[in-house]
Amino acid sequence: xxxxxxxxxxxxxxxxxxxxxxxxxxxxxxxxxxxxxxxxxxxxxxxxxxxxxxxxxxxxxxxxxxxxxxxxxxxxxxxxxxxxxxxxxxxxxxxxxxxxxxxxxxxxxxxxxxxxxxxxxxxxxxxxxxxxxxxxxxxxxxxxxxxxxxxxxxxxxxxxxxxxxxxxxxxxxxxxxxxxxxxxxxxxxxxxxxxxxxxxxxxxxxxxxxxxxxxxxxxxxxxxxxxxxxxxxxxxxxxxxxxxxxxxxxxxxxxxxxxxxxxxxxxxxxxxxxxxxxxxxxxxxxxxxxxxxxxxxxxxxxxxxxxxxxxxxxxxxxxxxxxxxxxxxxxxxxxxxxxxxxxxxxxxxxxxxxxxxxxxxxxxxxxxxxx
Length: 371
Ligand code: HEC
Known about the structure:
Radius of gyration: 22 Å
Order of helices and strands: HHEEEHEEEHEEEHEEEEEEEEEEEE
Shape: elongated
Structural class: mainly beta
Helix content: 10-25%
Largest sheet: 8 strands, antiparallel
Mean pLDDT: 89
Number of helices: 5
Bound molecules: heme C
Number of strands: 21
Distance between the termini: 47 Å
Strand content: 25-35%
Number of domains: 2
Low-confidence stretches: 1-26
């Protein structure tokens, strides 16, 4: 299904206008903040030799519309004080006599545009895996659509040609065509029934349900600073120590490399007890999974549904299904720790009847009791 859409969307662009035409002037991109962010990003890319006159070379290959006749792609990470973000740079070559050889010989010649995806901080655009999109001209200025709106930011969801609108069809639901490094594991989205071996849980809804006015956005978090090796040790510390309250977590889509762990302000040796409520907006079967680094244990409605309690690099938990009999708020308890180096904490779901791959649970599904 997805593949067909990809071909269709691509076909619309063959011989057609350049990327970015006919986009709505949506608040999602082209604002002052987006433009400033893109300009900083360009400077960092120059510094990292991923673009510009001193850019490191990479093997050219024949591309597909809308990107260019010949393409080169570089993937790396950019580091700021807070976090490391993955960046993918695509050089798009267009011209009468452009060929793999001509680009290999002179990578500055016929360079029409540089399209960039940069994975931003948690909460930036959880609906679309937090990618920031930009299209630069070969001199580093931003491209604009015919309305003069700069192509920088959450560009764009309308089907007539936004980056997001087309990249949403990339396999693995990670918006990246070229590899599946950021993909959510394949699963049984189209199967009538989950295959044998998938665990199904049936957690209890909060009774009574909290009044809407009694809730604030985000999950409560308490930090414990120690070198933990197991999630169980975080639970033990939390029983003995008061811990430090952190800024509530509005979403669970943290992927920070060796940057700061959640809202702790620390880079290493962090345990976190995260508590609050999760809203299942309709009854039915939800598929859920987490990606974590290091250990994690998720309990919903008093039932532990996902657990990967040890020290490890980024990896996904098993996929599980959660049978929700009644829509509404359920208790959420999450234990997490990061020992050293990189940290990741992401919660994914696929809602009943939804097709395709898992997405981040949206911020609207998280809350905590006010006060
Ligand atoms: C009509 C579909 C379509 C649109 C619109 C589109 N892309 Fe792409 N993009 C692709 C395809 C297909 C590839 C893989 C091409 C290849 O390398 O052969 C790709 C590859 C990329 C890559 C390399 C990573 C990857 O996914 O493989 C980047 C970066 C990228 N596009 C950025 C952008 C940006 C930024 C925009 C908007 C300004 C954009 N794209 C608009 C289809 C699209």
